[in-house]
Design goal:
alpha+beta, Beta-Lactamase, Phosphatase 2c, domain 1, 4 domains, 6-stranded antiparallel sheet, 5-stranded antiparallel sheet, 19 helices
């Protein structure tokens, strides 16, 4: 009934509804309360002004923490800030639960704001409703746990696909969307980066939406502010042009939030619900926090994918293809980068065609795991190819490359001096002859035709780039039919905390036990060190890698065989050159023979063979001016007893034949032939056209024979 009486004053209405009024001056740090608001906070029921610190003391500390986030969200979105808080007395007891609703008043010039709001007492929610109602208590604790789990999962996602999969699996406390979509921006149009809860193909109408179109995601990208739509009627009235696109999905509520990184809106996130959602401040706060984390995760994933694309392109341009097949030989290679930075480093390999059907195998490692190391690696590859193509021998190639690297890294103003290790091998496929020059690099290993693995000790010089006048002596060995040579960088040896010794033992076990072609062996080596192999491996393998890995395998096909798989021959043979100017290599010769006899039954006979090799090789180096060529063979004996025999020959170019001496008790020389007579089953000296050969034989005895 109309009476014509004036409406009561606002204050009287609020008082009748037991609702207080308050105003906060953020800059001054004070809050003005009317009498009802003061009463609800446990103060005398009269108008008063109190500091922000005094107000904070009236509320539960956990609840006050929520206030700042809710207010900032309301300022950003231009919406109402609503919170529920527990009022505490002087003894720290909860006396009542109040609800505050406020509206930020923002100065458009300065961006500063004030708050004007109401305060009203509310009752506790009935048991069991906290899961669906955003109130203080269990919902808040479950929300905090959810955000921690979501943040951890999104932080661990390493690709856009993983980020989208994590986002699709998020189960928000109290309300969970059944449809999700992530929109990106290309030029002036939206793109669909990914979606969940829709059928494949449902995204097609949304893939080329103009940013100027009346679509909520486009509005979010244009304005940088979230759009919440609580009902189909609300959607239809606010966005009539795009409603026909959304209607077929049968949703009841939608939230479109900006994906913002460093102040730039990179896209939008849609969360759609099949049931009505009111989007309370707590629910909007959860969605906003997830959107921020999702934006950061997508930005990180995009950056990582761009880096991987750059890495792949850089590596493809720097790593060679192995070229056409080599008659009588096969080659396999692997390169796995470190997990740091751009996943590109200084390891490299190369195969260089040379005149006369020969070719060169090169493997090297530039100090460092960064873009500069990769750049120097590329320069070294070019220099090596140039010097090799000019026809220089291996020692000359490395000497020239070392001077080249020294020249480009020894600038007086440079604070980032680099060096590189390298192994250069010139291969003659017709004979299996290998000419090896080594610059501080790990030595090669050879798997013989019966599966025995030997480390081939070779002469070497300083790493490249240290001394412009360094020399690099050459070692010649022969790769016999059915044998395979491995050369690698130290990443293959030392990954997993190994040193050179334990790392080589691990590699030897893989080489000895593997059956198959070179490609399978290359994979087995990388897998045996640290997981699946690839030429360009991203993801977990690279992330765990302590150092780059480069591997080259060279196999010489066995007679009558089309591959290099181990077969048991009647003769096992190895050769080693000990240079006249390298007497320290005598120890290497001893190790070489011991490795060669690793499956010999009697350890005392192995010791005898090693001792005799040391005596004979030392005799050549001391009493002649020539190098020593050591050839060792293990073969089945011909006496019908099925015993093996080792024959060791040491050849030099000297013409002086050895003769037996009668040394005194304290003599330092003259014991060599006496030891051979004492320990060898047979021995002799064969003159050659130029030089001579000293040989001895040992016949394998049963283990229990003493």
């Amino acid at each position: 009934m109309l009476t014509g009486e004036p409406l009561p004053a606002v204050g009287d209405v609020l008082s009748a509804l037991a609702t207080g009024l308050w105003r906060s001056d953020i800059e001054a740090g004070v809050v003005t309360l009317d009498a009802e608001a003061a009463r609800l906070l446990g103060l005398p029921p009269e108008p008063t002004t109190i500091t922000e610190g005094g107000i904070r003391a009236r509320f539960h500390p956990e609840d006050w923490i929520e206030v700042d986030g809710v207010v900032r969200l309301a300022v950003t979105e231009g919406t109402i800030a609503e919170v529920r808080m527990r009022v505490m007395d002087e003894r720290g007891r909860v006396v009542r639960l109040v609800r505050s609703r406020s509206k930020p008043i923002v100065d458009p010039v300065t961006g500063k704001y004030q708050l004007i709001g109401t305060l009203q007492e509310v009752s506790e929610p009935p048991p069991g409703t906290a899961a669906r109602t955003p109130v203080t208590g269990d919902w808040r604790r479950s929300r905090e746990a959810f955000l921690l789990d979501a943040g951890r999962a999104l932080a661990e996602a390493r690709s856009t696909e993983e980020v989208l999969r994590v986002a699709a699996g998020l189960s928000m406390p109290g309300f969970s969307p059944d449809g999700l979509a992530v929109f990106g921006v290309e030029a002036d149009r939206l793109t669909v980066i990914g979606h969940h809860g829709q059928k494949p193909g449902d995204e097609r109408p949304f893939t080329q939406i103009s940013l100027e179109m009346d679509y909520p995601a486009a509005e979010v990208v244009r304005t940088g502010r979230a759009v919440y739509i609580s009902s189909p009627e609300d959607y239809r009235s606010r966005h009539p042009a795009s409603w026909p696109l959304a209607e077929p999905f049968g949703r009841h509520s939608w939230a479109f939030l900006p994906l913002t990184v460093a102040g730039r809106t990179m896209g939008a996130w849609m969360a759609a619900f099949t049931y009505p959602v009111s989007f309370t401040p707590d629910e909007r706060s959860v969605l906003t926090t997830v959107a921020r984390m999702l934006a950061q995760a997508l930005s990180r994933a995009g950056t990582a994918e761009t880096e991987r694309e750059l890495t792949d392109g850089l590596q493809r341009s720097m790593m060679p293809t192995l070229g056409p097949e080599i008659p009588g030989m096969s080659v396999a290679a692997r390169y796995v980068p470190t997990g740091g930075g751009l996943q590109v480093g200084g390891d490299w390999y190369d195969l260089i065609p040379l005149p006369g059907g020969r070719f060169a195998l090169v493997i090297g490692d530039v100090q460092g795991h960064d873009v500069r190391a990769a750049g120097l690696m590329g320069q070294l590859r070019i220099a090596l190819r140039a010097y090799a193509s000019e026809g220089h021998r291996p020692d000359a190639v490395l000497a020239r490359v070392s001077r080249f690297l020294y020249g480009i890294t020894s600038d007086e103003d440079s604070t980032d001096l680099r060096f590189a290790t390298c192994l250069y091998i010139e291969v003659d496929p017709a004979t299996g002859t290998l000419e090896i020059a080594r610059a501080g690099h790990p030595e090669p290993a050879v798997r013989m035709s019966d599966g025995t693995v030997l480390t081939r000790h070779t002469a070497g010089g300083l790493p490249l780039g240290i001394d412009p006048d360094a020399d690099y002596p050459t070692t010649r060995i022969a790769l016999e039919p059915g044998e395979t040579m491995l050369i690698c960088t130290d990443g293959l040896i030392e990954t997993g905390g190994h040193d050179l010794d334990t790392g080589w033992h691990r590699i030897r076990r893989i080489l000895e036990s593997h059956e198959g072609d070179l490609e399978a062996l290359a994979d087995a080596l990388v897998q045996g060190v640290h997981g699946p192999s690839s030429h360009h491996t991203p993801g977990p393998l690279a992330d765990r890698r302590e150092d780059d890995i480069a591997v080259l395998l060279l196999g010489r096909q066995g007679e009558g065989h089309g591959d290099t798989a181990p077969v048991r021959p009647s003769v096992r043979r190895t050769a080693l050159t000990v240079a006249q100017d390298g007497p320290d290599q005598v120890a290497g010769a001893r190790r070489h023979v011991r490795d060669f006899l690793q499956d010999w039954a009697r350890e005392d006979q192995v010791d005898s063979a090693v001792l005799l090799v040391s005596e004979v090789v030392t005799n050549v180096l001391v009493h002649t001016d020539a190098d020593a060529l050591l050839i060792a063979e293990v073969t089945e004996a011909t006496d019908g007893q099925e015993r093996r025999r080792i024959r060791v020959e040491v050849t030099d170019a000297g013409d002086d034949l050895p003769h037996r001496r009668h040394p005194g008790e304290l003599a330092s020389f003259g014991r060599g032939l006496m030891l051979i007579e004492l320990l060898a089953d047979a021995w002799g000296v064969d003159p050659r056209g130029k030089g001579k050969t000293i040989w001895f034989e040992l016949y394998e005895a049963p283990v229990d024979a003493r």
